[in-house]
## 1
Amino acid sequence: MSVDRNARRPASESPWRVPVKDLVHSAGIQRTLRHTWPAPEQVGTPVLGVVAGEPVDVDIRLEAVHEGVLVTGTADLTLTGECSRCLDPIEAGHTADLQELFLAEPSPEDDEDQHLIVYETIDLEPVLRDAVVTALPFQPVCRPDCEGLCADCGVRLEDVPAGHAHERLDPRWAALADLVDREKTSTPETEER
């Protein structure tokens, strides 16, 4: 599919799409951007991420290089979610490191995961998403020493008294336990017959 890179882009675009007309084919030129933009949709995992629309402070440098535009910088944002052990809410600041080369022309060597300059703009949304998601823990916790929930009753282990435990009966012995219970409840009249 051929893309006309000189055509006008649609008027209503995300702030994460940055015009780079001044940098295309101008190796050595650079500029910086410092903005606060709303977080795009689906930045994170189902357990921890950035709420869509929340402010993200972006501080990046755009540098024209021979192949296209090199983007480096950071994005400061707030992660929200829940602890994978106790299910308490988590809210934490996070700084994502952003670095990506946007190519002026597609490279024939690598067809996948290429970021291209399209309509003289670059789209930083996937760059932010990749930087945040790859840095997130697989199982986030509210604190490293979080004890979690009791596997039997679901109560937070930090809220129960010391020695909290539940009697567990191996299901293979359940039939024997029923016999013992019947033996204890049987009356002397029953035993004589």
Note: The first helix runs from residue 125 to 135.
## 2
Amino acid sequence: MVLRKSPICGFVFVLLLFLSSFLGTLFIISPLLPLMIFKPKWWRFVIDEVMGSWITYAVSLMEVLAGIKIRISGDMFGQGESNLIIMNHHTRLDWMFLWMCLIRRSEVKQEKIILKSVLKLIPGAGWAMQTACYIFIERKWEYDNRTFTKLLDYFREAKVTKPQILLFPEGTDFTAKNKARSDEFACQNGLPLYEFVLHPRTTGFVFLASKMREGGMLSAVYDICIGYPQTRPQNEMDILYGKFPEDIHFHIKRHPVITLPIGDKGLQEWCELRWRDKEAMLKRFYAERHFTETAAASSGRDRDVRLLLRFCFVLWTSLVVVWLAFLLYSSVARWYALTHCVLFYAVYWWNGGMEHLEISIFNWWKSVCQ
């Protein structure tokens, strides 16, 4: 346990996460790029499966290597759904920790995270997220509006994946600086001051919920509350220094699409009300160190993933070792890797990223086949 909380564990965790994403992109995803050109739907299906496998490895690093435990309460996810997930944003790493929940109650390969556009430049992980069709935003609504529309239209028309879109309505993680800004906004608009959450920015939620519902892509909104009863790493540097949470709690509330209000104003007020509920829920959580809410008419039980996590831990770690040896002893492998590194950055500067290239190719095929 001491080793798990040490900088050594943090360094190994970050190193394996980086190497697996970087080398996995080069040696698994890159050879599949011709599928994007000649069989776009096959490409989307295969890449989602690859991403699901890698996310499982990331979860194995969190649980097997770092020893993080989780506790999930509340509703089960419906099978075969397209849905929207909204969650409070305690730390910059909440999106990664959520994988530990989804792997037990949903399908991680379906998840499409809304992220800052600068993250697509990260070698390996950023490239993989591009090919996975994650949604990158600039925080400029005139740009983000077009991005949301483009990606949602693609998911609807391709009919290969049923997206499970993760949105943090707060827009940023919970820090003293961000809380001060949220409090200032609340005072200016006559809103209550929150202690455990930031006031949500509802524009993105309203647009996504409306657009997905109009396109028949919204089965439910899943309102997830995340809490850290003990250690709470705020950012990547905390993880690097071995500051892992001992356990993480999730509470899930499913809101079927038929229960959502109609109209932008109604959706805005609905989202704001959910955050008032979160504030009250988290106040109790940090007093009692667990969620006291119970699930309403949920059925089923969490998937047992212990063997799967250990298998992926061994498989992906072995692949990383093999790929590193390949690069070390083969000049051909090094030239191959360099070429594809240049390719990913070239596509980014030329077309905005692999996800935009994928959509352009899909639309071209659609026009040819009509």
Note: The mean pLDDT is 93.
